[in-house]
Amino acid sequence: MAKCSMLPKSVEFRLYAPNAKKVILTGDFNKWSTKTSPAKKDSRGNWTVKKSLKPGKYQYKFYVDGNWADDPNCASRITNNFGTQNCVIDIK
Hints:
The chain has no helices and eight strands. The chain is mainly beta and 92 residues long. A hairpin with a 2-residue loop joins strand 5 and strand 6.
């Protein structure tokens, strides 16, 4: 009998923000914390952070220098309680 895999997968989130001083990944996977998932900047201005996530749908945004920012590469979005949109990622 086959088992459904619920093992976490490593997912890389990336945001191009060459002028940013601080980028945080935030979402329902970390209770929207603006402190627990800082991204690292490379020499080209790309900020990346890896998260280990179990299969499922997650809402997220970036917190860039104190302001909320969408992931421009995310095609799936959902309206949030603040009248803006959150990005959605579906981990299979």
